[in-house]
Amino acid sequence: MDKMKDYPVLTNSRPEFKQIPKKLNKHLANLGAPHVESFNEMLSVGLGHVAKHIVPQQFQTPAGERISINIDSIWISKPQVPMDVIDVRTREIYPTDARQLHASYSGVCSVRLGWSVNDLEKPSINMDLGDVPVMLRSHACNLGSASPAEMVKHGEHDSEWGGIFVIRGNEKIVRMLIMTRRNYPICVKRSSWKDRGHNFSELGIMVQTVRDDEMSLTNVLHYLNNGTARFMFSHVKRLSYVPVCLILKCLMDYTDEQIYNCLVQGYESDQYYLTCVQSMLRDVQNEGVYTSAQCRSFIGTLFRSRFQEVPEWMPDEAVTEFIIRERIMVHLNTNEEKFQLIVFMVQKLFQCAQGKFKVENVDSAMMQEVLLPGHLYQKYLGERLEMWLMHLRKCLLKKLNTPDSLVSSSIMTQCMRQAGGVGRAMESFLATGNVASRTGLGLMQSTGLVIMAENINRMRYMSHFRAIHRGSYFTTMRTTEARQLLPDAWGFICPVHTPDGTPCGLLNHLTLTCEISKRPDPKLVQAIPSMLLEMGMIPLSQQGQPDAKLYVVFLDGKHLGHIFQTEANKIVEDLRYAKITGKVPEMMEIGFIPYKKNGQFPGLFLCTGPTRMMRPVWNLKWRRVEYIGTLEQLYMEIAIDEKEMYPDFTTHLELSKTHFMSNLANLIPMPDYNQSPRNMYQCQMGKQTMGTPCLNWSKQAANKLYRLQTPATPLFRPVHYDNIQLDDFAMGTNAIVAVISYTGYDMEDAMIINKSAYERGFAYGSIYKSKFVQLSKKQSYFARHPHMPELIKHLDTDGLPHPGTKLSYGSPLYCYFDGEVSTYKVVKMDEKEDCIVDSVRQLGSFEIMPRKTVCITLRVARPATIGDKFASRAGQKGICSQKYPAEDLPFTESGLIPDIVFNPHGFPSRMTIAMMIETMAGKSAALHGGVYDATPFRFSEDNTAIDYFGKMLEAGGYNYYGTERLYSGVDGREMTADIFFGVVHYQRLRHMVFDKWQVRSTGAVEARTNQPIKGRKRGGGVRFGEMERDALISHGAAFLLQDRLFHNSDKTHTLVCHKCGSILAPLQQIIKRNQTGGLSSMPETCRLCGDSSGVSMIEIPFSFKFLVTELSSVNINARFKLNQI
Length: 1125
Prior knowledge:
Dna-directed Rna Polymerase Ii 140kd Polypeptide, Chain: B, Domain 6; 6-stranded mixed barrel; nucleus
C-alpha cells in the first residue's frame, strides 16, 4: 500500500479489499508526521532541554539560609487509571475512552526538584504536577506503536495517523504557524522602528534566536540616522537598547583596536563605514568605561532592577552575565560565537544602509519556517514550570517567615503541593487556544493557537494537518504583502488551496511532498566544520587579506569562517554530494547566495535545525533524490520536466509535475483544464461535503456529524485519490447529468433533481447529534417514573429512550429521580426536527456508584430538498431548484433518464472544461466498467483528453462528442438538438435549508435599541442589511422599506412638543390618587414650555430616539419642525 500508484483502479478489484492493512499507509502517515514527530522530540530530548534552561530560583530566608531550587528532570507518563482505583480490567486509558467519557486524554506530568541550602545539595524530591494532555500516536500515547489491527481493536480507524489532542471529548489540533527563520540575520525595514527612540531609523538587522529548548527571542541591531547602531534585547516583554560596541566589549575582553579590526575586516576601503565604527567606539569611551570589566559593571548597574532572577547578593557583573546568557543570541553557547555574529550583523547593517545590498522580505518563504505543535507545547509547558517554581519560592518564603524557621524536606514537600501544578493550565491552553504568558513565547498572538479538528468529512479532517497560518495579527493589517504568493514559495506552499475571504493568503497549506525538518543527528552536525576546513574554508582565527573577495560561512547562525569566491561553487557541489551520501544531515539546507550587485547579501548559510520547509528534487549530477529548502531554491536551476532542461545549466529536476499542489488540490480532477478560481472553490467545497467522516459510528460521541448514506466511488479521479485510500471514506454520488435548459427551474447556478432518483435515495444524508446528560447530585439516578404509564412506549425502565425510537418536539427524552427534592423529572425533546434515537450509552467513571452520565446519539434524516447546495468537483456550485417527476424529464434512446439537469449557461463564464471532460470520461467509464485517470498534466496539445475519451465513447457505441438525442418526457417528441449527456461525480454540501431557514413575526428585542436580536437559534429577526436596503431604494419600494425598517423593527410612540420641537421634554400623562381617594389625571405637558396644548403623539424609530438622547448627554439639543400631525 505504500508504493505510489501510477493509475487509479476500482477499490473492490484489489486483492487487499476489505482487509485491514498490516501497516499504516505512508501517504496518510505523512499528514500527521510534523505533529507527532515534534511531540515525540519533546518527550525524548525537549523536556531535558527545558529542565536545563529553567532559571533556578535563589533567595534568602529571614533565618539567613540561602536556598536554591531548580528542576532536574521532567517526564510525562502514559494515560492510566489512577492507582487508588481498584477492580479495573486494564489500567491503560485509550483515546476512544476519553472521547466517549467527554474527558481529556492526559498523562501525569512529573518533575524531580533539586534544591540546596547554603550551596549544600539536598536529596531531590519527585512530585506529580497534574495531568497534561498527550498527543495521539505519540510515544506518550498507549497506541503510539500500535498496528492497524490493534488500532481497530481499540476503537480507532486502521488509518489513524494521530497528531490531535482529545480535550473534554473534543478533538483539538495545534495550528502550525509561520515564523521568521531562526538564527539568520535578516535585514528588515519597518516604519514602526523609527518610533523606538531618538535618531532611530526604519532599518535594522533582526535575528530570531532559538535555543535548543525551542524558546525564542528576537534581537535587533538598529541603524541610527547619526551613523551608529543600537542593540535591542527584551525581557518579560520590555525592550532595552544598548550601544552595540558596549555589548561587544562585554562579550570579549578585547581592546578598542582589536574590536575595530574585527569590525572593519574585509571592508577596509569603505570610508563611511570606518568613520561610523570609530564614532561608535568613541561613544563608549565618552561614557567613562574602557575595559570589559567596567562595561559589565556599567550594564549590570543599569539593568539590576529589571532582572529579579539574579539574587541580591550577587555582584552587578552577574546581571550582565545573565543578560548575555539568557537574552542575547541564546542559540550560541560561547561569548566568542556571539561576538562574531554581532560583528557580522554590524557589517551587513552598514552595507545595506548604504544601498549596496537589498533589504530582505520577512513575508517571503525563504525567510520563514514553521512553529510545530510539539515545540509550542514544549515552550508553554516550560514557562508554566518556571511559574510553578516561582510560586514554590513564594510558598517557602511565606512558610519560613520567622528568623528561627529552617527549611526541611517535609516543609519543601508541603510547599510543593501548595504551589499547584501545570495540568489545568495546559488543558486550558488546548481547550481554548489561548496562552497566558508573561514572556509572549516569541509569538505575535496569544489567542487562536488551537482549533477544533472538524471531521465534516475526510478531506476536511486531512486539511487541518497540512495547514499553516501566518498569524491572527496579519488578519487586521490593511496591506497585502503578507498575503501574496511569491515565487520562492514554489513547491512548498500550495498556490491553489487557500480560502477566499478574510484568511485568503494567510491560511495556506503545505504541498504534497513538502516536509518539515526534524532535529538532526548531533554527530553529523559536529562533523560539518572539520569537513568545511578540508574543503578549503578559512577559519576565523586566520586573518584574511584586506578587501579579499570572500564569502562568509554560517552554520545554524554560527559564524565559522570564509571561503574564496572562486572556490564557492565547488564547495557547494561537494556539500551536496555529502548530503546525498549521508555524511551530513539529509535535511541540511545549503543556502548559497552568490555575489550580485544590489542583490541579497552574499554568503554560504548552512541550516540543519528543525522546523524548516524542505522538499525532494532529483539531482541530475549524482542521479539521486536531494532535499532542498526555501533559502537555497531561489539560487538553483530546477526544471519542471526533461523538455525544459538546458545542458550544463540545469542542475535539478522535479520528481512530478503535481508535487507543487497540496493534498486536496491533487484530488481535483484535471485542474489544469479549469479556471484557477474554480480550483480554489473546489478545495473549499470539498471540505464542506457530506460524506463518511468515520467508520466507528458506534463509538462516536461528537456533537455533530454529517453522513451521506449513498456514497459512490468517482469513476473519473486522480491517482492521488487511490494513494490516500479515499474510497474508505467516500463522499460523493455519481449522477447522470443532462446539460440542457429544459425548464424554468434549471437556471444558471441551479439544477433539477430527478424525483424518482431522490426517492431511491439519491444524495440521502443524515446528521448525528450527541447529547451528554450528567446528573451532578449524589442522590440522583436515571429511572422511569413509576406512576406515568404513558412513558412506557417512550422510555425503558432505566429512564432512557429505546434505540430506534422516533422523537418529535415535546417527546420525553429521558427521566431521572432528583434526590434533592425526591421527585421524578421528565426532560422533553427540545429539537424542532423529528429524529430517531441511534444509540444510548451509559458512561462509566472511577467511582463506585450508579452511572450518572449518558450519551444519547440522535439521527436526523436529511434527504435532499429544494434549496440544498450541491457542487461538482470543478467548482460548479448550485442549489436544487426543483424535484422534477421522472416521467416529465427527457430520456435517451436507451431509456436513460438524467438524475440532474444542468443548465448549459454555467459553462461559458466559468470555463470549467474539466467538468465537460468528466462528463465524457464518466460515461465512458460506466460503459467499460472501470475508472479513468484524472491526474493533471497527463494530456497535452498533441494528445488531448477530449480526443482520448471521445474515442473511448465511440468504442462503446456512443457519439464521439458525448452528445445524445433526447426525447421530451412531456409529449415524447425527439428534440432537435444534440444534448451533452454523461456521468458526473456530484458532492452534496452541508449547507441545507433545514439549518438555514428563519422566520419571525414578533419576539425578543435588544434592550438598548429595541431592534430585533440576531441569531436563528435565539429566535432573532431576519437580517435586512445595506444591500437589501439599496435594492428596495433602487426599485422605489417605499412601502416595503417602511415595513421592514420601521413597522417590523423598532417602531415606538413618543410625545413631541409643537412649540419647542423637543421629544425629550414632554411628559407622559400621569394618573395618581387624590386626597379624597379618587383618581385624577394630569395631561401630557412639555417641561420646557409648561404647556400641554401643543403636545401630541408621533411614531418614530426607537434608534432615532436613542440618538437624540445621546446627543442631549453632550449638551446638543435636537429640535423638530412639525408642519401638521
